[in-house]
Structures are given as structure tokens and as C-alpha cells.
Amino acid sequence: MTSLLPELPAFAWALLGLAAVIVGFSKTALPGINTVSIAIFAALMPARESTGALLVLLIVGDIFAVWSYRAHASWPTILRLAPAVVGGMVLGTVFLALADDGWVRRVIGGILLMVVLFTVWRRWISQGRGAGASARGSRAASIGYGSLSGFTTMVANAGGPVMSMYFLAARFPVKEFLGTAAWFFAIINVAKLPFSVGLGLIDGGSLLLDALLIPGVIAGAFAGRWVAGRVPQRVFESAVLVVTVLGALYLLLF
Hints:
Blueprint: H1 10-28, H2 34-44, H3 47-69, H4 75-98, H5 101-125, H6 131-137, H7 139-156, H8 159-169, H9 174-198, H10 204-228, H11 233-253
Helix pairs in contact: 1-2, 1-3, 1-10, 2-3, 2-11, 3-9, 3-10, 4-7, 4-9, 5-7, 5-8, 5-11, 7-8, 8-11
Keywords: Cell membrane, Membrane, Transmembrane, Transmembrane helix, Transport
Transmembrane segments: 12-45, 52-69, 81-99, 106-125, 145-169, 181-202, 208-228, 235-253
Organism: Leucobacter rhizosphaerae
């Protein structure tokens, strides 16, 4: 069985363990921080193969996120986003089948930076109490963010930061933000499994690696649930923006 595992030095295993903890924490507290896990996996494994290994861990994190925030989801938002997300996933599957590791990393990093800049600009020009509600109901925003989320989540499991920007633009409260994200990505990540298996991104080795890292995901999820109930709205929103920018810069430059 151990022959299926990648041959990595001790510090690399420690980093993978840290990435697993971050996956769990991102699901129950700070979605944008998951770009750190993406960067760690992509740095230690081939970028394409890392997406399959990370996907299983994300689904484990999704289970805890749904359990923690199942009552806070905005289902109209999820249903409105669904068609665009499916289209983005199809495009992402085609891109992943054709692109090499370097292109995967740089395209995702560039998309994330553009989304952050657009979101900050949109919030800056928005006025009045109804700005958040109009952002939620905007068809253009649903199509734009939804398709980008589907594409990035299929290519590099990086849909979380894109949707974080959408939820920030729509001014979701913390619990509604986390509840909607929990259900949204639980559905999306399970839907991605057949595509990832078909592309050969999930195999016996990646599943064994995931089995070793799942305890870290669980620990991170419980830690995130404790933190989320204590963080102020403004701090939460600022943290999401900062970690998304840092993750995007890493993917784009390294």
C-alpha cells in the first residue's frame, strides 16, 4: 500500500498536513484561505494530479460545513447560479484536458486577481442599503461569477475564492455566507467527481494520501466553526479579500 504514496521528504508531509487543516478551516470559517491549500498541493505535486487529491479532502470539509451551517443557506442564490456553474465546469474540463501545469496555475491566478479587483470596485461604487440585494438578484453577476466559479473549481479547486467575492459583493452576513457556500460547494464538488475520475486525477495513490490527511481536515473544520462564531463582519470580509489576493499572487507568480 505504501508504494502508492508519493515519495516526499518529512517537511513536505508536514506541509500537506497543514494544507489539510486549512481545507477544514476554510470550509467552516474563511473560504478564501483555501487558495493556500491549493498552492501547497500544487507546489508538492504535479498541478493536475494535485486537483484530484485535494478534491476528496474538500468533500470531507463540505460535510462538516453543511452540518455546521445547513440552516443558513440562500437556496434562491444557489439555484440562480447553477446553470452558469455547469457551463463553467464543462469549459474547465476541456481546458484541464489540454493545458499543462504552468497554464493551469497562471490562468487561475489571473482570474482570481481580476475577480478581486472587480469586486472591490463594485462595492466601492455601490450606494444605499439595497446594493447587496441588487447584487444578489443581478443576472449578469450570477452568470459572470457562476461561470468563473465552475471553471476555476474544475481546473484547480479554486472556485471558493470566486464565490467568496460574489458573496462579498452581495453583502451576505457571515452565517448566510458560510451556509450558502457550504451547500453550493458540497453539490459542486460531488458533481466534479466523475469528471476527475474520467481524467485520471483520482486513483488508489491519491485516495490513500487523502486517508492519511482527513484527520487534519476534521481538526481544521472544528477550529473554523469555533472561530466563525466570534469574528466581526468587517474583519471577516477583510480577511477573505486578503487571503484571496495572496493566494492568487502565489498561483500567478510561482
